[in-house]
Amino acid sequence: MFTRTKAFELLQALSSHPIDLTHPGALTPERIGSYSIEALGFHLLYGTERVNKEVIEALCQLAKESHALEKMRAMQAGEVLNRIEGYESENRSVLHTAMRDVFDERQTAPAAKDASDRASRELHKLKKFLEETDGYTDLIQIGIGGSDLGPRALCIALQAFHKPHKKIHFISNVDPDDANAVLKNVDPKKTLVVIVSKSGTTLETLTNEEFVRERFKATGVDPKRHFIAVTGEKSPMDDPSRYLASFYMWDFVGGRYSATSMVGAVMLAFSLGYDAFEEVLKGAHEMDVHAREAEPHHNLPLLSALFGIWNRNFLKLPTVAVIPYSQALLRFPAHLQQLDMESNGKRIDKEGHPCPFSTGPVIWGEPGTNGQHSFYQLIHQGTDPIPLEFIGFRKSQYPKDLEIQHTTSQEKLLSNLFAQSLALAIGQKSENPNKFFPGNRPNRILLADQLTPKTLGALLAFYEHKVAFQGFIWNINSFDQEGVQLGKVLAGKILGLFSASKAPGKPTSFPLGEAYLKYL
Length: 520
Ligand code: G6Q
Description:
The protein is an alpha/beta fold. The chain is built from 17 helices and eleven strands. The chain is globular. The longest helix has 23 residues, at 110-132. Bound molecules: glucose-6-phosphate. Glucose-6-phosphate binds next to loops.
């Protein structure tokens, strides 16, 4: 168990006197130069974390004692890791990595191989389908949660690489305004609609599908020639007679880990072209191999997971802000919010015992520099330190930039990123308390050359593995989401009250729900 490891004890002792980054001589150019690792074109710069060599050694020891790498290898080989010992649970393999294990260095374990063979078949079908349907100009993706956030974040991030005349739209919320706002801007005759639901039972998605079907029919367009299903094999949505095409996903790919499965593939390959989409998969696959092969000191997602654990469990900091200095990553923090909080927002371990320590932090974020003009005040001078994870790129996505007063916009963006990282770490002494910055606010920077399809695939997988590594070390199940069930059940009961009020004779009783309906 996490708290019974030798490394835990050591880290706890070390956390009583973490390095003071505001101390003269603590944060030196040498430290910034040497506290970094590089792999796959990414630099992880961690000189501004509150760690020294001893802490890093102890964190890597924690990874070893918790068998973090062995668990990552077992996950990628298809071992059944999504389970709670001795209790009813999902009891599944966790094989999102197999969705991109279609290149070299493939897994040979039977479960993983079978999963990647299935993924290859779907990819092949997709490539052929896109060649046959090139005339469509727009694609609407209908899905929610994992069937929306990751794909949407990737789509926005790669807008610079979209083919001309291919437009993507998303509908997720059951709020009718969401669908209406999209439908206002498309010509059904030229539009494909992809319904994405692994379970094929999600209320919001099925409602929105019917909503859009009716609207298409009203314009004389046959949905059967425009609607595509992405769903689990044998789900209620697995009815090819209703769709132009059907693509599959499987229960061993969790919703929030599904962006590189058909859940994201149809939309991304439509907008980017198949070959550019394959670059996303290649980038993710390279990160998968790195995550399972690289030793802790040189493993990008594992080291990042360890810094997260240091900040959460030893420096006792309950939230993390992820701030991309890249406008293209506008929705990436929203995806990470789900990925991290749904995965590691758990209060029991894998044997069903309550965790006597804190697990997943609250994750939030916004692109910089915009955030600097809003919530950074609290980050710099608020009462509670907030660890930051910055993401930055040396080059912009579009080639056009302008020098104003001898610097380009990209240089201005990067200057702000580095300045914030330093300001948070070193703070500012002042006699005037209003101008005093306490500093010692831990942060690190993930820096790459340019946000391309391949870099984005790697970045996506980096975070998937960072989250999984933390779960392995805490010994929690990062792959289920029981916590979202209760609300769904109660919403169903309240919906029952609405329908009973219109169809008398349908008796239903839910006094607490009825109390709310009196406000309508
Ligand atoms: C993600 C969750 C959840 C899920 C949605 C949509 O890991 O399981 O966000 O993705 O509830 O589910 P369906 O794809 O089944 O409609």
